[in-house]
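Lecture 7 notes: from sequence to structure.

We start with a single chain of 159 residues. Read the sequence below before looking at the structure.
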Amino acid sequence: MTTMKEAAEQFLSKKRIAVAGVSREAGGAHGGNPVYVRLRDRGYNVYAVNPNATKVEGDACYPNVNTIPGGVEAVVIATHPKNADKVMQDCIDAGIKYVWMHRGPGAGSVSESAAALGREAGLTVIDGGCPLMYGPTADVGHKMFKGVLSLVGRIPKQV
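Now the structure, written as tokens:
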């Protein structure tokens, strides 16, 4: 097993990242949009994924990870957990090796069946927490929030 810190570093070392489950409403509080915008603002080549949108946050949006030109190296799943299995299967089919299922204080996007599916296929699956809590994407608020969520067991220690 890999520590959460190591897995986060590996994930955030990728430069082509998709965020599946972004909202059509720009700037919304939905977990996917803040992650998408922060990654974009920090210099990542980030791609929005939502089957019901063609533009998100002013950028092109793709129906699934398999339709992103040139592919991606990693995916943040920010969908409802019931949709995570489908996104995970798309990641497997596209040859993506790093997947992060977003979870803040609420239920988030974590699906045990999606995590198992990804791990069985050999993917590194982070099942909880938020990429904005780590490394080059972190801010003070997210770092503090990481501490609280770690204490209450909402962030895995190992993946």
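The domain at 4-151 is CATH 3.40.50.720 (Rossmann fold). Keep this in mind for problem set 3.
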